[in-house]
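>> received
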Amino acid sequence: MKIEEVRSKTNDELDFDMGNMKKELFDLRFKSATSGVKSTAQINILRRSIARVETILHERALGIRGEEPKN
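>> returned
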């Protein structure tokens, strides 16, 4: 997920997406440990996407970038 996509969403949408990404990350880690995954890079991509979402939510909470999404 690109940073522009993250900034264009509301906090509720970001919370929902983060829950889905964390579940997907857990599933990928589980598959990797048990049977192996073809693309281990997907784990790093998900970790970075989760970090982006957490960063934007934290910025909004602190008022650093208080701008709400452009609907």
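>> The mean pLDDT is 88.
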